[in-house]
Amino acid sequence: MKLSVLVLEGPYNHEASDSAYNFIQAALAKGHTIRGIFFYDDGVYNATRLMDPPQDDRHISKRWSELGATGIDMIVCVAAAKRRGITNEVLAPNIRISGLGQLASMIDEADRLVTFGD
Amino acid sequence: MLHTVNKSPFQNSSLENCLRVAQPGDVILLLEDGVYAASAGTAKSSLVEQAVKRHTVYAIDADLKARGLANLIREVRVASYGDFVDLVEQHPVHAWL
Amino acid sequence: MAATGKKVMVTVRKAPHGSIYVQESIEVMFIFATYDMQLSVVFLDDGVLALHPGQDTKGLGIKGFMASLGALVDWEVTRVYVDRQSLKDRNIPEDAIITIGRDEETDAPIRPQVLDSAEIAKMMATQHSIVSF
Question: How many domains does chain A have?
Answer without folding.
Answer: 1
